[in-house]
Amino acid sequence: MTRGEDFLQNTLLQAQLNRLKYGDESTDDSRPPADWALIAGEHMGHLLGAVRIGDWSRVEQEILHVSGPLLELHEALVKNRLVNNPGGAVSRSKIGHK
């Protein structure tokens, strides 16, 4: 994996852009996890539609439209203490295992 850092930076930027364009800080900070999951799910449908027709530039765009809300979902889960592993660390023993 050679472009992971770029993807993560772009995901952070997408989440910030989404807040500027579509929301506001106080509303988004109090949005429940289910809202973020539904937003990500809606964009997943757009992503799958773009894959189906081979619109690869739109696929690239929709990947970030999914990852931004997924980042927000993770933040909401951590904030509301709904996850057991808030750091999201993956055990090294699990890397590479299927």
Write a concise synopsis of the structure shown.
By secondary structure, the protein is mostly helical.
Q: Characteristics of this structure?
A:
98 residues, mainly alpha, 4 helices, globular, single chain
Topology diagram in text:
Blueprint: H1 4-22, H2 25-29, H3 33-53, H4 56-79
Helix pairs in contact: 1-4, 3-4
Overall pLDDT: 87
Determine the strand fraction and express it as a percent band: under 5%
Number of E-type strands = 0
What general form does the structure show?
Answer: globular
Q: Please indicate the count of domains.
A: 1
State Rg: 15 Å
Largest sheet: none
Put simply, the count of helices is 4
The helix/strand order is: HHHH
Class from secondary-structure proportions: mainly alpha
Poorly predicted spans: none
Helix residue percentage: over 70%
Distance between the termini: 17 Å
